């Protein structure tokens, strides 16, 4: 089984940098368990998946050809979809 590389977009990295250490570690642990995990759903009409971690949503894309997971955005559950 090949491991996936993980790339954070600027918006996602900015959000993580603003969090306290405990929340940041919790989110990083959830991200590094991808593409497996719990509470993952594919968004309708987009090539995006969402992972719910407590009150946060992590939106990401998977490219199986080059084994890349691109973390598009991380935000509070109600605010994350405003961009999409």
Describe what this molecule looks like in 3D:
The protein is an alpha+beta fold and 84 residues long. It has one domain: 2-Layer Sandwich (YaeB-like fold), CATH 3.30.2310.20. The protein contains two helices and five strands. It has a five-stranded mixed beta sheet with strand order 1-5-4-3-2. Strand 3 and strand 4 form a beta hairpin.
Quote the CATH topology: YaeB-like fold
Q: CATH homologous superfamily, by name?
A: RelE-like
Residues in helix, %: 25-40%
Strand order of the largest sheet: 1-5-4-3-2
CATH architecture: 2-Layer Sandwich
User: What's the total count of β strands?
Assistant: 5
Main sheet? Answer: 5 strands, mixed
Oligomer class: single chain
Shape: globular
Instruction: Determine the strand fraction and express it as a percent band.
Output: 25-35%
Distance between the termini: 32 Å
Q: Which consecutive residue ranges, at least 5 long each, have pLDDT under 50?
A: none
Run of helices and strands:
EHHEEEE
Radius of gyration: 12 Å
Concise account of the structure shown:
This protein is α+β, with helices and mostly antiparallel strands and 84 residues long.
Give the key terms.
35% strand; 2 helices
Q: Which secondary structure elements does this structure contain, and how are they paired or packed?
A:
Elements: E1 5-8, H1 10-18, H2 21-32, E2 40-42, E3 49-53, E4 56-63, E5 68-76
Parallel strand pairs: 1-5
Antiparallel strand pairs: 2-3, 3-4, 4-5
């Amino acid at each position: 089984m090949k491991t996936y590389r993980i790339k954070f977009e600027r918006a996602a990295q900015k959000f993580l940098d603003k969090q306290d250490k405990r929340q940041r570690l919790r989110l990083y642990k959830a991200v590094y368990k991808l593409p497996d995990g719990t509470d993952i759903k594919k968004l309708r009409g987009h090539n995006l998946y969402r992972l719910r971690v407590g009150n946060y949503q992590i939106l990401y894309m998977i490219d199986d050809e080059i084994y890349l997971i691109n973390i598009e955005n991380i935000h509070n559950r109600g605010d994350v979809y405003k961009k999409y």
